[in-house]
Every structure is written in structure tokens, then in C-alpha cells.
Design goal:
Strand 14 and strand 15 form a beta hairpin. The protein folds into two domains: 2-229, 3-Layer(aba) Sandwich (Rossmann fold); 236-322, Nucleic acid-binding proteins (OB fold (Dihydrolipoamide Acetyltransferase, E2P)). The longest helix has 18 residues, at 166-183. The strands form four sheets. It has a six-stranded mixed sheet, with helices on both faces. Strands 13-17-14-15-16 form a five-stranded antiparallel sheet, with no helix packed on it. The chain has 323 residues and is of the alpha+beta class. The protein has helices at 42-50, 92-102, 107-120, 136-148, 166-183, 194-200, 218-223, 228-233, and strands at 2-13, 16-27, 31-35, 57-62, 65-66, 77-80, 154-158, 186-191, 203-208, 211-216, 238-241, 247-250, 256-258, 265-274, 278-285, 293-299, 310-314, 321-322. It is built from eight helices and 18 strands. Helices cover 26% and strands 33% of the residues. The structure holds adenosine-5'-triphosphate and magnesium ion (MG). The site of adenosine-5'-triphosphate (ATP) has 12 residues, from strand 2 and helix 1.
């Protein structure tokens, strides 16, 4: 049974369709990520599900119940926003107790529930600090604890890690995934970071201008994008002409590079970018589509081809996806 279901959901602001006829079914315990560029309607969709906003058309179901016209407080949803939105004058513990108070849960029961939530996000011992005395990552953990403390049916996360530096973001991504699995809570995450979407989710939903472009498992969307927009949004896409006149897509990791003579196609290295484990080559093809750009990402094995060098390039027919 699906836990969250959107049927033909639209939200218009004058001439702008922030959500345009969106269908989505999220299963119980599933982790779905909504991915799309700025202004594509990600926050709009979350706010409609949360009940902070009403759709112009369509229906929204949670746990099989039509909640389209139900107020937010009847939906039992935990929310985390990009800006932590903690209460600055309250301690960490008071922040986490807050949603319990709203639900008329107090005393020792509330305290033990709040301490449990803080333990889950690894903030034990920091209960008495104020938000200003915490790092960004710690503040976001408080926001998470506050969102899960009342055992929500659904967790909605809007760019929760957006304000953090890369390393901390990657650490928290792992924690978030583990927490979600431990709680088994149905989760929708919003991000514009494609790596985050691909690494965390059971399925991703790609949005553009309020419209669904694709809903699929990460690997499927990455390797078999529904259209050019998805292909380009989910990473670097090499477009190659196919013999039947159509266009195909090859991902950079599927492009092989070798010494001249080892493959029929050749290219000149325009730029070799060392990325640690990988080298990314920006190439200009020489034969066929002369001058056409191509990007190859290959493991760094001690020697890289240099800028200006000529190389042989090849890829498998099976790695081409028509778009
Ligand atoms: N209250 C509003 N009034 C008018 N237009 C709005 C309103 N809220 C959102 N919009 C418009 O709806 C569209 C979608 O906005 P939304 O905030 O959902 O995008 P987003 O995908 O979350 O973007 P970002 O990644 O920048 O947060 C945008 O064109 C935005 O300008
Ligand atoms: Mg947004």
C-alpha cells in the first residue's frame, strides 16, 4: 500500500504552475528524493504534502486517507527545513521537547522521548546548549531530532544538508540514511544535489518547471534517463550520433581511453583534471564528429594522459542509451 499518494496535483500562482499535474506514490518506509533545479517546484510539493499549502487541483492521500483539505496538524508529519529554524532562546532539549508539548505530551515521558531522539542523532550530552553554541551540523541534528521525536508517520526534509560543507554533508547523509532505515519512516527528501539524491534514495523523482520528468530507482534514472533534461541534470552526459540518425548518451565512466592504435576513434586531450581517485578528461573527438566534445572519467592508475596528447577512445554499444 502506498503511504503517500499524489493524484494530478497542481499548484498555480497566477500564470506560474509551481506544480503541474503531479502523480506520485510513495510506499510505506520508502525513501524518495525530489530532485530538480531551483524554482522547479520541490518546496511547493513538500508544502502541499505537509498541508502548509493547498493544491489548486488534484488529491493528496496519506495512509489511504484523503488529506487534501486536512490541516497540517492532522497529518503527523516531521519536517526539516534547510535553515534549521530552531528556537534560539531555547536549549537543545527544549527545542526537541517542543513538538511533544504541542501534542500535550509532558513530564518524564516527554523527557525520555526527547533524550532518545537526541541519542539517535548522536547529540547526547549537549541537551543544555543553545543553538548558537552548536556547529551547523549539530544544529541540523537538533532539527532532525525535533522532527522525529513525536514518531511521525512521514518525514519531509527540504534541503536539510544544504548549508553544510561537503565533508560534513557526506557524513550526515550516511547518518540520515541509517536513521531512516532504523525508524522505517516513509521519507521524502528535497535536494538539488544529484549525488545526494542518487546515493540516498530508493527512488528519485526529477522535476522541471513543476512537471515530473521521471520517477525511477537512482541507477535506472542515471543510466536510462527518460529524456535529455534528466540525462543532463543527473551528471555529465556525452551525446553521440547513432547510425539511425537518433542521439545516444554515454556516461563518462563508460568511455575508455587508451594509447593511439588501440581503438578506431581518436581524440585530443583538451584538459586532464585530476580528482584524486579519478581523472576526468575533456576531449575533442577527431574522426566522425570532428571536434565534438566528450568527457571521460577513468580511475587514476599512476599515469594520466596530458593536455594536447592524442588518445584512442571507445565505448560499448551497450553503454549507449537513446535519448
Ligand atoms: N507564494 C508564492 N507566490 C508566487 N509564486 C511562488 C510562490 N511560491 C513559489 N512560487 C513559485 O513557484 C515556483 C516553484 O517554487 P519552489 O519554491 O517550489 O521551487 P524549488 O524547486 O523549491 O526551488 P529552490 O531549489 O530554489 O528552493 C517558482 O517559480 C516560484 O517562484
Ligand atoms: Mg525550495
Amino acid at each position: 500500500m502506498s503511504d503517500i499518494r499524489l493524484e494530478g496535483v497542481s499548484k498555480r500562482y497566477g500564470p506560474v504552475a509551481a506544480a503541474d499535474d503531479v502523480d506520485l506514490a510513495v510506499a510505506q518506509g520508502e525513501f524518495v528524493t525530489i530532485l530538480g533545479p531551483s524554482g522547479s517546484g520541490k518546496t511547493t510539493l513538500l508544502s502541499l504534502i505537509a498541508g502548509l499549502n493547498r493544491p489548486t487541483a488534484g488529491r493528496i492521500f496519506i495512509g489511504g486517507r484523503d488529506v487534501t483539505d486536512a490541516p497540517a496538524q492532522e497529518r503527523n508529519i516531521g519536517l526539516v527545513f534547510q535553515s534549521y529554524a530552531l528556537f534560539p532562546h531555547m536549549t537543545v532539549l527544549e527545542n526537541v521537547l517542543f513538538p511533544l508539548g504541542v501534542r500535550k505530551i509532558g513530564g518524564a515521558v516527554a523527557r525520555s522521548q526527547a533524550l532518545d531522539a537526541l541519542k539517535l542523532v548522536r547529540l547526547e550530552g549537549l541537551e543544555d546548549r543553545r543553538p548558537s553554541q552548536l556547529s551547523g551540523g549539530q544544529q541540523q541534528r537538533v532539527a532532525l531530532a525535533r522532527a522525529i521525536v513525536f514518531k511521525p508517520d512521514i518525514l519531509l526534509l527540504d534541503e536539510p544538508l544544504g548549508a553544510l560543507d561537503r565533508k560534513l554533508r557526506e557524513e550526515l547523509q550516511v547518518e540520515l540514511k541509517q536513521l531512516q532505515r532504523t525508524l522505517g519512516v516513509t521519507t521524502i527528501l528535497v535536494t538539488h544535489d544529484q549525488e545526494e539524491a542518487l546515493s540516498l534514495s530508493d527512488r528519485i523523482m526529477v522535476l522541471d518547471k513543476g512537471r515530473t520528468q521521471q520517477v525511477a530507482a537512482p541507477a535506472e534514472a542515471y543510466l536510462k534517463p527518460a529524456n535529455r533534461f534528466v540525462a543532463e541534470f543527473l551528471g555529465i552526459a556525452n551525446f553521440v550520433g547513432l547510425e539511425d540518425g537518433r542521439t545516444g548518451l554515454v556516461r563518462p565512466e563508460r568511455v575508455r581511453i587508451g594509447a593511439i592504435g588501440t581503438a578506431a576513434k581518436t581524440a585530443r586531450v583538451v584538459e586532464a583534471i585530476y580528482l584524486g581517485q579519478m581523472v576526468r578528461y575533456h576531449l575533442a573527438l577527431e574522426n566522425g564528429a570532428a571536434g565534438a566534445p566528450m568527457v571521460a572519467a577513468v580511475p587514476f592508475v599512476g599515469r594520466a594522459f596530458a593536455t594536447g596528447e592524442r588518445v584512442a577512445v571507445s565505448w560499448e554499444a551497450a553503454d549507449i542509451w537513446p535519448v
